[in-house]
């Protein structure tokens, strides 16, 4: 399903350069034949003039590279179609975050070998039990982590030291070998139905954690092999940014973030959850049915999506894909939402309203999907009046941005 949850407010850390036009709700633009005149739309105080965010990443370069690395890590359903339940993914901007996916004793290794950034993704063959953050004991689940280091030498040393640190956590841990990947460093604890592995590949270290229903070392190693096969192929399709160029990464290189309607454009800085541009894998990793989400993205011609302050804008290959993406998102939203009338003035918009089975503490009451040419905006609110203004503002901003 499409998970409709509340996004926390971004804390203003760095003041961004103001746009040439002030961030007010006045409507710019000239009506195009065959389209509505967006100057007539009730957009409230949301800014809808054409806009660009400041260009360079500066100190946020590693964070932007970590966001890019969402496409460097395989989705669980690519490893095995049975692993259709996405358990999410995460940028690892620092060593303290990275050890959430490694043994705590691993942090000195990451610091000494100067980890640049990382990315983790997880999936399973069933959803986690309600209210739990771990898979069931008899589930098959995998977590794949890619860690970037300054060079191949640092990565090779880090892989060996991470394995030594991990295996040293318990005297019961034992090393295993993979015949398919003899350079992989693999270990398990006999009688425990999971396995860990590290493999250096170029300037990256791949870390795997695999859980299976039974403690069978041969079976567990076979899952390490199939996961590495998929992950190495994914990593080889990724082009890492040279270290010297990371500080020059652009915050919004294709002006996709600037097309997302927000209440305040000032103070926006790169943030993996609140201000970021992602490719397809990020959307697949959060899906309860990864193959279905992948088909939707393929059929719609999905290219990228930008997230800002709880709203988003996706770009597709051509205008024919926008309504396909809207319909797919609406259909996969889940039973907690019912159809709700969209503002009549907005062509193609579709809206939803939280019903009695939803959780208003964690889910927005309203969400609307707004297609415009090659773009699909998604806006949310707890206020019916505000969702109407946001929907109109998102349409107007998309129109004014071309």
Automatic annotation (TrEMBL):
Top-level lineage group: Bacteria
Boundaries of every DUF7373 domain copy: 54-250, 256-401
Entry-linked InterPro entries:
DUF7373, DUF7373_C
Q: Which UniProt keywords apply?
A: Signal
**Signal peptide stretch:** 1-28
According to UniProt, the name of this protein is Uncharacterized protein
Native source organism of the sequence: Nocardia fusca
């Amino acid at each position: 399903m499409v998970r409709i949850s509340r996004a926390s407010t971004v804390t203003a850390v760095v003041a961004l350069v103001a746009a040439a036009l002030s961030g007010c709700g006045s409507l710019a633009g000239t009506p195009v034949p065959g389209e509505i005149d967006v100057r007539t739309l009730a957009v409230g105080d949301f800014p809808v003039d054409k806009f660009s965010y400041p260009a360079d990443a500066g100190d946020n370069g590693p964070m932007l590279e970590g966001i890019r690395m969402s496409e460097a890590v395989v989705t669980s359903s690519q490893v095995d179609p049975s692993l259709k339940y996405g358990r999410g993914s995460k940028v690892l901007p620092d060593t303290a975050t990275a050890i959430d996916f490694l043994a705590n004793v691993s942090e000195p290794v990451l610091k000494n070998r100067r980890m640049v950034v990382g990315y983790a993704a997880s999936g399973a063959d069933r959803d986690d039990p309600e209210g739990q953050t771990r898979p069931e004991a008899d589930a098959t689940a995998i977590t794949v982590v890619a860690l970037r280091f300054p060079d191949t030498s640092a990565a090779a040393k880090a892989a060996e030291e991470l394995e030594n640190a991990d295996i040293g956590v318990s005297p019961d841990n034992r090393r295993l070998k993979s015949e398919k990947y003899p350079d992989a460093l693999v270990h398990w604890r006999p009688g425990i139905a999971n396995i860990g592995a590290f493999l250096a590949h170029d300037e990256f270290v791949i870390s795997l954690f695999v859980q299976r229903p039974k403690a069978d070392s041969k079976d567990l190693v076979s899952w390490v092999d199939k996961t590495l096969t998929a992950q190495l192929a994914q990593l080889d399709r990724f082009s890492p940014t040279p270290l010297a160029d990371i500080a020059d990464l652009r915050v919004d290189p294709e002006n996709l973030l600037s097309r997302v309607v927000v209440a305040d454009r000032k103070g926006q800085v790169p943030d993996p959850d609140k201000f970021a541009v992602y490719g397809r894998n990020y959307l697949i990793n959060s899906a309860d049915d990864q193959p279905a989400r992948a088909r939707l993205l393929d059929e719609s011609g999905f290219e990228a999506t930008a997230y800002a302050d709880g709203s988003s804008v996706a770009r597709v290959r051509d205008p024919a894909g926008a309504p396909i993406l809207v319909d797919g998102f609406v259909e996969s939203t889940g039973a907690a939402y019912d159809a709700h009338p969209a503002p009549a003035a907005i062509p193609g918009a579709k809206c939803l309203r939280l019903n009695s089975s939803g959780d208003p503490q964690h889910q927005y009451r309203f969400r609307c999907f707004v297609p415009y040419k090659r773009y699909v905006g998604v806006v949310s609110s707890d206020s019916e009046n505000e969702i109407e203004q946001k929907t109109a503002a998102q349409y107007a901003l998309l129109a004014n941005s071309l």
